[in-house]
Specification:
Layout lengths: L3 H13 L3 H34 L5 H11 L4 H12 L14 H38 L3 H11 L1 H16 L3 H7 L9 H11 L2 H33 L2
Length: 235
Amino acid sequence: MESFSAILIEAIGLILSWDPDVIEIIMLSLRVTLTAVAAACLIGLPLGAIVGAFRFPMRTGVIVAMNTLMGLPPVVVGLLVYLMLSASGPMGVLGLLYTPTAMIIAQTILVTPIVAALTRQVIEDLNGEYAEQFASLGVGPLDRVLALLWDARYSLLTVALAGFGRAVAEVGAVIIVGGNINHVTRVMTTTIALETSKGNLELALALGLILLVIAVIVNGLLMAIRGTAARAAYV
């Protein structure tokens, strides 16, 4: 078996050579993840804002449900989406199983509760600060939600990045609904799992290093956004 240093050198060589297979896997991973996060934000941001800004019957139950769904087991989500999209399922006629679309659906289901729950906390805290101003100005429900979302934009960007970090590292759900098909649904995490089991450690490590770089970039963006938000608060 090759030494770790030899495997690492070959892995770096794959990255630096812009290996076509590696690039294809990375681009599919980013396309699936970014689409899922965008869909999750379209659903989760307004949902979290409404729950955070207003009081209504069963609100506590909704919050408990949102927080509980943050811990959804990925394999369970993958199984449920698989059953929905399989030939005998209610959406089987669409033929989406083992496609990138199925992976996007699974990731959206996983990320939406995270976005909604974190947004709810951010908006609730901000709404407490502005409650008297909204009441004195007679601000309507829609204007209140829009104002809170705009004022919390920096914090909500960190929420979106947190969702991205969760989605890009997902393997359980996407391998069930995507099937890990070469040149069709093979993303970074599923390829790492497959290639490691096959003993192709160079490719697995190359993709692992790229995932680490993405994690560093995401965390760097989070710190930059927090710094920008802190400076804006003092302006």
